[in-house]
Specification:
The chain is mostly beta strands. Helix content is 2%, strand content 53%. The longest helix is centred in the first third of the chain and has 4 residues.
Amino acid sequence: MRTLIFYFLCLPIFISAQPITFSKIFSNYPLNSENGWEIAEFKEGYILVSTSRNPDNDNEVWCNMTRLDQNGDIIWYQQLPFYPNRGGALLIHDNLIYICGSTNEKYAQFFLCCIDLTGNVLWTQEYGKSNVIEGGPLLALTRNQEFILFGARYRDSVNKRDPLLYFVKTNMQGDSLDEFTYGGKYRWSISRGLVYTHDGQVVFSYPFCHIACAVDNSGGVSSMDTDGNILWSHEFADSYLPGTCLVIQPDSATIVAKWYVRREDPNADKNPPALYFIGLDGQIRDTFVFDNVTLADISGISATPDGGVTGCGRRFGINTSPRVLFPWIFRMNAKREVLWEREYADTTYGGSFPNIYQVIPTRDGGFITAGLISNNMTGVPETHNWILKLDADGCLSPGCGPRTIITANEEPVFLKGVGIEVYPNPGDEWLHVRFPPAFEREKERVLVSLVSNTGSLVQSLPATAGVVTFSLAAVPAGLYFVVIRRGREVVLSKRVVVAR
């Protein structure tokens, strides 16, 4: 993903009069928490990476890839049996999608997959030792058309299982060319950021621990050449938070790393997130501290075409009582001035407040985010992908304020429930659920339930025919959900209104 950012610096940015904006919610496997972790843009739309558990094996976490058009509508989705990192694992190059992650075996290995834009898997490769746990790789592409995978691995010694940093270099076909490790002096270290710079450095960021890992953690940024030779290294101060240490390159001479600063003043944030502006020689040139983000954090940063930075995370809402965490996005220009900050929320569902994990600039001059939103009203744990497409000011509609409350979001799209009809809605006497002819009911028992908006079961019927009908004669007026389960999967959760 870090390499993809520079696509915008090399090509003209096609800015329309008003960027497309939307809010979309969808899910492949809603019984298993699914998070929109990373999104990338290409000419015809977007690729989203999320995760969910294998519905047949709770011990396996799978990668879900979804292709969206420019309006955020789904073209295809693909589920792959490996675990991707939360960001930096996705790259689009020459109309091919490259995604890396970790295998699901007891002793995981690095995994690299090449997919075309129609969703067909062209090849997969695995790297590392079969008896050493390895995982969390990020991906970058060098000017020599070589991939760098950056993750972590447990040490070979039985008595030293804490991870150290691990790199694999491959060609464009995924064949392994070399591997290196770094961080042996630390007790443990984890991969968090990777960027291939304009001058050919491989810059990587990582949190680490020297001794007392349960107390304080540090962040580090280091640079090496593509042969694994370390060029420079910088360690930040210890932090109370074991959070993300990120790195991007917004312009040809600057690297930006996200870590924290320590404050001792009694009325100041003790451990606010900060952006460190670093030269290509590894020297810190400037620091920007988000002092107003008490007890909150930055989960993702990206470069903007003008040499600035955009980032996202969650923070306690301004002037809210009790204090509530809101998804939060900021936009900073090349002069390191914050142009705007926005908070977002959706009141359509009774779940926890949503989260945003990544924000990137788009070709039309706007921004797009990847995150999650949940619904606790149905008695079923639903966590869905949440995509926000925003204009240049971070707004869904022009001239928005510091907080956007979305009150009429469209319902989640359940990819395994496409074609199921629930009607009439609103209903007063009867409610019908019609299954498309291609829907598979025979292999596993399909159960259709009517649930109140507090999660209480009202009625439940087996789907033994193509149409299931509920009598609403004794059902009080109000908001309900139709929840359809097939085996262990929830394939649809739809809001319905009973009117009198």
